[in-house]
Specification:
By secondary structure, the chain is an alpha/beta fold. The chain has a single domain, classed as Luciferase-like domain (TIM Barrel), CATH 3.20.20. About 45% of the residues lie in helices and about 20% in strands. It is built from nine helices and nine strands. A nine-stranded parallel sheet has the order 3-2-1-9-8-7-6-5-4. Helix 3 packs parallel to helix 5. The chain is globular. The N and C termini lie close together (about 10 Å). About 40% of the residues are buried.
Length: about 230
């Protein structure tokens, strides 16, 4: 199981994110990710860096790391534009771009509305999700944010990986029988046990919030490789 970490992008400067990416690379994590939000959830007064330009810089500085947004939200830009954002990132990080996608939800609607971006009905967002996933599949590893059963079915139809946010390992394991699964969310105090549970559930990636103790995660990763 590969391990990644989300970068601290809700800041006034990119310095913390660039330092965190460098640290993740130095200790041996597999990848780094960036939120795709116009502001931190529920805090419109705070800043947020756009994921694709930041990840391009990170990829150039750290040629071993895989990079991707978590998740790129359908509806913030046109589907064709979103596809080209991923392809442009791949020009900087060839073979190292991951494409996690999501439809967004009620919690992120305010970001759209504040900028005059329509919030499409769920079925239209899922149709765009399907189109973007099909366009990128074969060029890079595509993930879909797990949610409603209809969204999960789209992932299985297209043949991409479902990514669960902060769900228990047993839920991940139940879906793993249908196809590939990943997990993302917050680290627990018993991090090593959490990683064991996610690995045993069949997750191919575990991606953690910026509060992750990357040294502990990297030590677990090295140990899991040694035991194989």
């Amino acid at each position: 199981m590969k391990i990644g970490v989300l970068l601290p992008t809700f800041r006034e400067s990119t310095r913390d994110a660039l330092d965190a990416a460098r640290h993740a690379a130095d200790v041996g994590l597999d990848g780094v990710f960036a939120y795709d939000h116009l502001w931190p959830m529920g805090s419109p007064e705070r800043p947020s860096f756009a994921p694709f330009p930041l990840l391009a810089r990170v990829a150039e500085d750290n040629p071993r790391l895989l990079v991707g947004p978590l998740v790129a939200r359908i509806g913030l830009v046109a589907p064709r534009v979103l596809v080209e954002q991923f392809r442009s990132l791949a020009l900087v990080a060839e073979g190292r771009v991951l494409a996690p996608l999501g439809t967004g939800d009620k919690l992120s609607e305010a970001e759209n509305l504040a900028y005059g971006i329509p919030v499409l009905p769920a079925d239209e967002r899922r149709a765009q999700l399907r189109d973007v996933a099909r366009a990128l599949r074969g060029e890079m590893d595509v993930w879909m944010g797990a949610g409603a059963a209809a969204t999960n079915d789209v992932a299985r139809e297209v043949g991409v990986t479902l990514n669960f946010w902060n769900k228990p390992a047993d839920i991940v394991a139940a879906e793993a029988v249908r196809g590939p699964v990943n997990w993302a969310g917050n680290p627990r105090e018993d991090l090593e046990t959490q990683l064991d549970e996610l690995r045993d559930a069949g997750a191919t990636w575990a991606v953690f919030a910026p509060t992750l103790d990357v040294e502990r995660a990297a030590a677990w990763r090295r140990g899991s490789l040694t035991s194989q």
